[in-house]
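Q&A log
Question type: sequence-to-structure
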Amino acid sequence: MAVLSFLLGVLALVGTCVALIPLVNLLNCVALPTALFGLLFGVASLMRTPEGESHNKLAVAGVVLSSLALLVGGVRMLISLLSTGGLV
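Response status: OK
Response body:
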């Protein structure tokens, strides 16, 4: 689950960064749930693995990347909702 968390975190962060382009911002609606699942898998993996294993580092990286993608995507979506009244 740690590897899955890491991969979802990377995909979500890349999707969120691409969603910053003005006409591609609907990708944010896909990147945010991906980041949420990455965060959930990372936290679950951290709770299941004993401390010091190699998968623990991937889980931490997945949690950090997913959290960053949620933060950037959430701010982007909030700015979009407040400025235009919609997601576009």
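Response note: Residues 26-46+60-82 form one domain.
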